[in-house]
Queue: 2 jobs
Job 1
Amino acid sequence: HWFSLELKDSIFFEILALAIMIFFIYYFVKNIDHWKSYYTYENIAVAFFIVYVLFIVVSSTISRYEQINNRLLAPAFLPLLWISTCQIPKWRKYVSHRQLNLILLVFIIGISGLLIGSYFAINQENISYMQETGIPGYSEDTWQKSNIVNYLQKHPEIFTNDSIIYSNHNQAVYFLTRNSVDALPERVYKGEVKDFQEEEPCILIWFNLDLNPDLLNLKEIKKLKKMKRVATFTDGAIFRLENK
């Protein structure tokens, strides 16, 4: 993904990542008995790579802060690149100047062709998608032409009553109507769920688009509140919530 390559076979890359980690651990353990190798900058980079990657993988697996992604793993990229290429100067001694030039030429042409082709394919796909639906995000036609959004834009009085208004897409409501509403609480935060349950009266603006699995869903809200449907749309609904 860092090189914008279309990588479809995730199992292959999972095995490759595991093999790299095992090799780095083996490389580090092997250097423990050789102090000249143990105190090199390369070994420090290996140690950083092992500790950082294991920390990110384990912490993001057992906690809820964020799924493993490119942003979290970005600090490990340079050590990976460094360690993967640190032996090249040693190998240079066993390759003639002509062979080295040929290898570099083939490598540069191959990598350049792969990256340029990948960039063209991705940009072509993005442009085609944007021409059909608009710029990704709340600027997409799916949101801009949403029935529930059009209703909210034509009925701003909904936002002027004394009821607290919640939504499972409060950012979309603000972006598209310029009216601020509260976000539905995530079910793991019991205190916020309790406050939501005790609040009365409430308005719920519910979107069927891009559902967030961490937020309370309609079935769970129905157990906490009496739900009266105010308006129904193809892409959502507006409810009035009261305490049971």
Job 2
Amino acid sequence: GFVDVETGEIVNPAMFQQMKEHFPDPWPQFRDELKARLSIDDPALLRTEMERLGTYPLEALEALHPLFVSRAPQRRNGGAAHMDTIYAKPRDVHVLMVNEKQAKKTAIDNAEKIWRPATPEEKASMAISRIGVTDKDSKGNFKLTLEKLSDIVDPHRNARMIDALHQWIVSRDEREKAAKAIEASFGRGKEKRKPTEAETAELGRLRTLPRKPLKDDRDSGPFTGPIIRTVKVNAGKMSGIHIRNGLAAQESLVRVDVFAKEGKFYLAPLYIADKVKEKLPDQTADGETQIDSSFEFRFSLYPNDLTKITLKGKGSILGYFRGYGGPPNPYNITLALHDRNKNGHERSNEKGEIPSIGVKTALSVEKFNVDVLGNIYPAPPEKRRGLA
């Protein structure tokens, strides 16, 4: 209580002096040195700052390097085998649309999206999911968008329903904004009042659910058919575990095995569900390339294994392995910066992670070990091991 935490003012000098006597600085400039060691990543700049503070002898300055956070690799073999959600597999009668980008010869940026029905071979690797018309993601955005309408199953048979949903979505944001304004007028806490009958009715109108069009309904509405609560959409290409005539995405990634062949790198993910199989997976992450004796096994990447990816013309990225992209990006991995600094790299996100690093055409993929003091060493050669 001797410091004002908002202003930093010492409001009780006697107590502050007593604390300094009980907990003296280990050496002069200790606080400034600690701040520099925690914030400076450039070795040359760090040595210059330490030389200015005068706390290090010359021989120590020559060996000085920035702090590197050591993280323990997660080499576990337990966890859930699959996610809770079970996706339906498309039947022969289902029509699922896919789009292809047809690049023009003059400018690839002006590529057009061409929609066509998925072939039987494409449907075999796809799944169907349900989206509630009022479902929202973690950021509070509606999952069912105008763009998502293109993924609705059997678009030709459901053309009028899709058009009705289009009209409902176009006005949804304005109606939601108006509804929140009415709710805000009720006040909060002890000041909160009950809505009037007119306000309750208006809220019901603004948040009405879409309805299917009947044959007699005009194209512009109002539509009088059954309420639409969920829609079936194309969940895209998906690999997983077959359960009750459906498909569940695999839950716990144990590791990713890295292979090399003809100057390219390939990933083979291993999940908890693979423990019960007689042999290790012999396909790469895209599910299409068979691993045989022509592939060279490099190493296994577990979560928090330090990895260095060198990309063509883009330099190197060093970070802890967090996961791989999965379909439709089976050769992308995510690395986390050692200190999770969101400003530590031009591509790092709010979590201090760098997602979507393509490894297939990388110049090199390397694995390192880190001791408890943050010293980095090249990982020794490995043999591919089972999951027992």
